[in-house]
Structure formats: C-alpha cells, structure tokens
Write a structure and sequence with these properties.
Layout (H helix, E strand, L loop, with lengths): L8 E7 L2 E8 L2 H6 L12 E11 L3 E2 L7 E6 L5 E7 L8 E2 L5 E8 L2 H4 L8 E3 L1
Parallel strand pairs: 2-3
Antiparallel strand pairs: 1-2, 1-9, 3-8, 4-7, 5-6, 5-8
Length: about 130
C-alpha cells in the first residue's frame, strides 16, 4: 500500500458491506510507527488496523501528521465500541483512548465512519 510499510503487512476486512485494505499494526514497533511516516493523506477505504491481545486501553496521538484521521475502537468480537475524530496537533498534543479495553482500533481518513454511516455496534469481518 505505502512504501514505508516495512513493519506492517496488508489485510482486507469488510464493515457493513464496505471492503477496506488496511496496514496491519500487530507488533509494538508497528503500533508505534502507525501512519507517522506517511506524509500524504490516506485515501478512502484505506487505513491501519491495530490489534491488541489481550484487550487494553491504548493511547493514540497524532504526532506530526499533516492530515486529520478518524479512529474507531472495537471489542474482541470486532463490534464497534466508539469513534473519535483525531485533529491535527495545535500547540498542545491531543491524545485519544477508548473508554474501555478494546481488541482492535482502525484509523481511517477523517469522518470516514460518519460519511459511510457505520452504525453503533457494527461488526467487521476479515476477508
């Protein structure tokens, strides 16, 4: 997908009938790298999947990305728990975290989940 993705691999999922191609961040190194090295905005239906085993309350931040993102948190059954919009950093960093332990997080272009009307408790599946 992206030339920087040396630490992650690609995975296909589907949510509410919409196919997505995601970089997989399932190691600590890949989770720390995230989308930080991608200098241009990601395109629709592409993003990054973070996996947490066991489930936890991870902390996410935008770093110095020049474009906003949406992040969705999913439980161990792959059901949507909540979505947050991640703005570009201003003078102070802005941190994002789920309200309860999660097993998955998906970062997508800003407002992707709203634009595609992804409903509460929506479930994604691996393809």
């Amino acid at each position: 997908m992206w030339p920087y993705s040396l630490l992650a691999s690609l995975i296909s999922i589907e949510i509410q009938g919409i196919p997505l191609t995601l970089d997989l961040a399932n190691t600590e190194v890949a989770r720390q790298e995230g989308l930080f090295s991608h200098p241009t905005p990601i395109v629709d239906n592409e993003g990054m999947l973070f996996i947490f085993n066991p489930p936890e309350i991870p902390l996410f931040w935008m770093g110095h990305l020049s474009y906003p993102l949406s992040i969705a948190f999913f439980d161990s059954r792959r059901c949507l728990v909540e979505v947050q919009e991640m703005s570009i950093w201003g003078l102070e960093p802005c941190f994002h975290f789920p309200t309860k332990p999660i097993a998955y997080a998906i970062e997508m272009p800003a407002y992707w989940f709203t634009r595609h009307q992804i409903s509460a408790r929506a479930q994604f599946s691996f393809q």
